[in-house]
Design a protein that fits this description.
alpha/beta, 15 strands, seven-stranded mixed β-sheet
Length: about 325
């Protein structure tokens, strides 16, 4: 089968279109023909091996998992002997590694039926970014209906899902983004939009119950000014620090929070099948839609990742197989 591979850390230029064996199907696994995947910040962090602390699990000198991408939408083509609940021909999606390939195999417990109203491309955009947004807002942000939410970086992949999930949970949502994304963010449900190139939202005097800081581009203490006394700041992602990256911000937030006042929380999302089921239900109800900036064919996965690294993508960047 065709797959995108890399055997050393570096820029997207190290990616190659290769021929590799079709994965085997263990008794508890599914074999899925991939229809689409999408690229995430995680992919370029792993591709470059930065922050370096990530190499403790990804491989010290070269990548242990030589096929990128963790989002998959596709069609079941084989079912392990111990699997129930799935059949050949089912359309499924998952947060499953090594997805930039024509086939993936993995435990059936990772997969969920695709939302019936979405295309392969729309479904493939959801898993990693959608789960991150859901856990940031519901589990770490503890959002309650009627509370005020500010989503910083509302035009990106996690940001567009954050706006919609916050609205679905009853939040009053303000989206902060650049000029060209204002109408997009308003169209997916934001009650108010702020152009960060025209004004400094941290000096507006407004206070929120929850702030979702996508990308961690602003100093922690300036973002903390946006919170009510009992508010919560949840940091999603981090700047491109070469050594320990997001760990610094997580530790700093915890230290500052110990002195009282609003909580500052950094976290790493944990893929959970039950969360993917929540996102499936939101999509089928019409409360969640995938914003897709552009799509690339498999052979141009390097171009997809290079574009994502510019930090200019509106919503998600998808790779079709």
């Amino acid at each position: 089968m065709r797959a995108i591979t890399y055997d050393r850390y570096g820029s997207p230029d190290v990616l190659r279109l290769s021929e590799v064996p079709v994965p085997s199907v263990a008794d508890g696994n599914l074999l899925v023909r991939v229809g689409a995947t999408s690229v995430n910040a995680l992919d370029w962090h792993m591709l470059r091996g930065k922050p370096y602390v990530a190499r403790l699990s990804a491989g010290l000198t070269k990548p242990k998992k030589p096929i990128p991408c963790v989002d998959v939408a596709g069609t079941v083509v084989a079912v392990g002997s111990e699997v129930t609940g799935f059949a050949v021909g089912d359309r499924v999606f998952a947060n499953k590694g090594r997805a930039a390939a024509e086939y993936v195999s993995g435990p059936a417990s990772l997969f969920v039926p695709m939302p019936s109203n979405l295309s392969m491309e729309e479904a493939a955009a959801i898993p990693a970014a959608g789960i991150t947004a859901l856990q940031a807002i519901r589990d770490r942000g503890l959002l309650q209906a009627g509370q005020s939410v500010l989503v910083h970086g509302a035009g990106g992949g996690v940001g567009t899902f954050s706006v919609q999930i916050a609205k679905a949970l009853g939040g009053e949502v303000t989206g902060v983004t650049r000029t060209e994304n204002l109408e997009l963010v308003r169209s997916i449900g934001a009650d108010r939009v702020v152009d960060y190139s025209a004004s400094d939202v941290t000096r507006s005097g407004e206070r929120y119950d929850l702030v979702i800081d996508n990308g961690a581009t602003r100093p922690l203490l300036s973002m903390r000014r946006l919170l009510k006394p009992s508010g919560r700041l949840v940091t999603v992602g981090a700047s491109r620090g070469a050594f320990i990256g997001p760990v610094v911000r997580i530790v700093a937030g915890g230290v500052v929070s110990r002195f009282g006042g609003p909580a500052m929380i950094g976290f790493f999302a944990e893929p959970k099948r039950e969360d993917l089921l929540v996102l499936k239900d939101l999509a089928e109800s019409g409360a969640l839609t995938s914003v897709i900036d552009r799509t690339y064919p498999l052979r141009k996965t390097a171009e997809a990742l290079a574009y994502l690294e510019t930090m200019r993508a509106r919503g998600k960047v998808v790779v079709t197989i």
